[in-house]
Amino acid sequence: MFSVDHKVIGRQYLDLALVAVFTGMVLSWLMRFHLGWPDTPIPGLGKIAPGGAAGGVMTPEYYLALMTMHGTIMVFFVLTTAPFAGFGNFLLPIQVGAEDMAFPRINMMSFWVTLVAFLVLVAAFFVGDQPPLSGWTAYAPLSAVGKDAGPGQGWGQTLWAISIGIFCIAQLLGSLNFIATTLDLRTRGMSLARMPMATWAWFITAVIALVAFAVLMPACILLILDRVAGTSFFIPGGLVISDQLQPHTGGSPLLWQHLFWFFGHPEVYVAILPGFGIVSQILPVFARKPLLGPKVFIACLAAIAFLSYTVWGHHMFLSGMNPFSATLFSVPTLVITIPAAIVTLLWIGTIYGARLRFTSASLFALGFVSVFVSGGISGFFLAQPSTDIYLHGTYFVVAHFHFVMGVAAMFGIFAGTYFWFPKMFGRMMSETLGKWHFWLTFIGVYCIFMPMHYLGLAGNVRRYSAFTDDYLQPLIPLHRFITIAALVTGAAQLIFLYNLIRSRLRGPQAPDNPWEATTLEWSTSSPPPHDNFGGRRPVVTQGPNEYAVAGPGGRDYIMQAESR
Amino acid sequence: MGRLFAVVVTAIALVSVTLFALHTWWLPPDISTHGGRIDSQLNETMIVAGILFVAAQLALGVFVWRFGERGGTRATWPVRIFPGGATPMVVIATVLVGIEILVLTLVGSKVWASVYQSPPPPGALQIDVLAEQFAFYFRYAGADGKFGVIHPEKMSDADQNFFGLDPATDTTARDDIVVATLVVPANQPVALRLHAKDVNHSFYVREARIQQDFVPGMVIPLHFTATTPGRYELVCTQLCGLGHYNMRAYVEVKSPAEFGQWLKAQQPAF
Q: Is A304's Cβ below 8 Å from some Cβ in B?
């Protein structure tokens, strides 16, 4: 259990993400049900949460607590741990031909610290008067002033800040390890230009994460100090809460927003760039041809990484920050769509002229392209200060970020799972179940998130636990449609869970290279031995993209450690 | 399977776009002088985004249909590289998106500037807005045209002294009018100053195409001109606690004559 083997650690991250994602999904079910039928009791909920949902009907504060936990769990413990820490840990060392990570003990530590962070967050749900309800963004001063601001501002909120602070430490350790491993432990012949696309994506993601989490951690420490030590980093003077004049003076609520979004926007790319890499590695395998423009792809990743630090203010157009800076943040936000559009065209261009094979992995990779387009394009509206005036704070934003960083990243995770499961466990997953899972999920996510754009255009405000405003009530039928779609799509994920468990126990034996792929992980056994390559280190002679070539034995591909 | 994927992707794209195009769910009619430009900016973005969305989804669908294996047999047709390789992709994306960015920024910045980067027109009606958990209050200067000074330590919901006024020593505060509905005259610029008493809130009136956060410790100016008399909802869009979903007030736009009568009929707060 306390293993320093990167493969075990990678699987531990993925197992943690699996627990977290189903927790987060159940929370979203409860929220969606409440939004559709606010007065109908949810069976059993009254017993689990007698304070928050007496008789099964949740209070407004309990709704906000579920929302806060859903966002926090999904962003940090699923979208960061699975595609980056999980798959990256298992695969990056093998893909560069290393025996392990550069710092195996630090690697082990990063997982266990992540687990501690998760347990602290779960504790926030049960400790004290009420779980935190300030949202995953935890805007100060609501998150900073303590109990006077209402339920959910006691110990729950403090534990939230502690949990995220701990999580930052884990990610800093992990990112350093990824960077060091990529730069120092590549095997002979594995030049940077020969690295697989997924390795490139994890490497660049690690660089982003290193800078981003290094800013969030001190921000969390300051927030904790404001809460428990009476400091005033984020709390200005003269606040009157529940008729109590607060003893703080001199802080700035906008400071929290700047620090949070300086982390928060790069974090979006921490969630999605590994998906870019996974899809760019999977598509050529099943298209049986090289990725179009691999160097352009890498350049685009680098451009996105750089630009990701220049755009955080687009979350703050209407925050009271200097309105002249809005244009300054808007332009790089729009410019970042250029590398994103190029990457999308490279994927679509890769399919042109292919011999495309349909597996669960390739379907989810194709689905990734579709949902990424859908989520990316709505960004045009939110990147412009003028149109953001109307759409900010509405479900349009919810639709946008769920498509682009939630659903798209999840599709990358699913594609990666179906693709690498045989390597991880030495057994094949059921393709029949995998395809059912794909179709239900693909159609389901569009039924859930596309209508949220319409809600946003109608001015439906987000983070409302019920729709009491006159103009919102006619929108409730659309909310019910979304709720039903969410329940069905969520249920379809049980097919995935069943497939995972059943295949792990009883799946057919996996060959070393079931998909006829080129990268180094397919040159070793399934699952790989403890040192990855059984005492020898592979010598790389090829790039990762040698498909549609005359390979040895009449094959249409050459593996990276093979000679022509 | 490839044909099924193509059909599903196409259907999703067409149904989604149709519901946007039909305005099945859409913005309410605009009632402000600046909103028309926001709406045209939004429409222009919608058309471009719609074209890009459909084009990308259809290209994906067509290629998957055309180049996907059928049935259980391995494909044997020759593999082809996209004509011109990656270069056309880079050129298409950079030129198309680049031009769009340039246009959107040049036009959009003007719209933004007209609301957020310019001072209110001279003669605008000054109104103070105070947001607290979970209500909005509005203050008019009264006969003397001057607002009383805000003293946080005197703020009290229990005494209904929402703005923390001190009429005993502050003569300018004595005739201040404090109400819970924002009443404004049509076709006259209104200059608001937003005060937050406790945590962040936001000022959002859909019909007036206006949204701005309240931030504790800051007084944030905001101005607009309403054109159409009527009653509209002002709602909070920044998470402020358990009652956030229920934090709202009404904005009443009256003809200038009716507004004058209404203002005269108001009693000072003290």
A: no
Q: Which two tokens stand for residue B147?
A: 């607002």
How confident is the model over A162-212, as pLDDT tens digits?
A: 999 999 999 999 999 999 999 999 999 999 999 999 999 999 999 999 999
Tell me if A393 and B200 make a contact (CB, 8 A cut-off). Answer: no
Q: What ipTM was predicted for this assembly?
A: 0.97
Phi, psi of B258 (to 5 degrees): -65, -35
pLDDT, position A261: 98
Domain range B125-265, its CATH number among 2.60.40.420, 2.40.50.140, 3.30.70.100, 3.30.479.30: 2.60.40.420
Interface of A with B in 98-117 (CB under 8 A): none
Alpha-carbon distance of B146 to A311, in angstroms, equals 41
Yes or no: say if B186 and B253 are a contact pair by the CB < 8 Å rule: yes
Backbone angles phi, psi at A440, to 5 degrees: -65, -40
* Domains along chain A with CATH numbers: 6-237+247-554 (1.20.210.10)
Return the residue of A nearest to B24 by Cα. A454
pLDDT given for residue A281 in this prediction: 97
Neighbouring CB atoms inside 10 A of B51's CB total 13
- Chain A residues in contact with B98 by the CB 8 A cut-off are 338
* pLDDT recorded at residue A183: 97
Q: Is the pLDDT of residue A128 over 80?
A: no
Taking contacts as CB-CB distances below 8 angstroms, the residues of chain B near A475 are 25
pLDDT at res. A151 = 84
Question: What does the DSSP assignment read for A399-425?
Answer: HHHIIIIIIHHHHHHHHHHHHHHHHHH
pLDDT at A50 over 90: no
Interface contacts A/B by beta carbons within 8 Å: 322
In A, minimum Cα distance to B49 occurs at A377
Displacement of CA A532 from its chain's centroid (Å): 27
pLDDT per position as a tens digit, B54-90: 999 999 999 999 999 998 889 999 999 999 999 999 9
Ordered by start, the domain boundaries in chain B are 2-70+83-117, 125-265
Closest by CA to A134, choosing from B257, B63, B41, B133, is B133
How many whole angstroms from its chain centre is CA B111?
13
Is the minimum CB–CB distance between A489 and chain B shorter than 8 Å?
no
Q: Cα separation of B79 and A556, whole Å?
A: 10
Query: Which residues in chain A have their CB less than 8 angstroms from residue B37's CB?
Result: 386
Mean confidence (pLDDT) of chain B: 95
Do the Cβ atoms of A358 and B69 come within 8 Å? yes
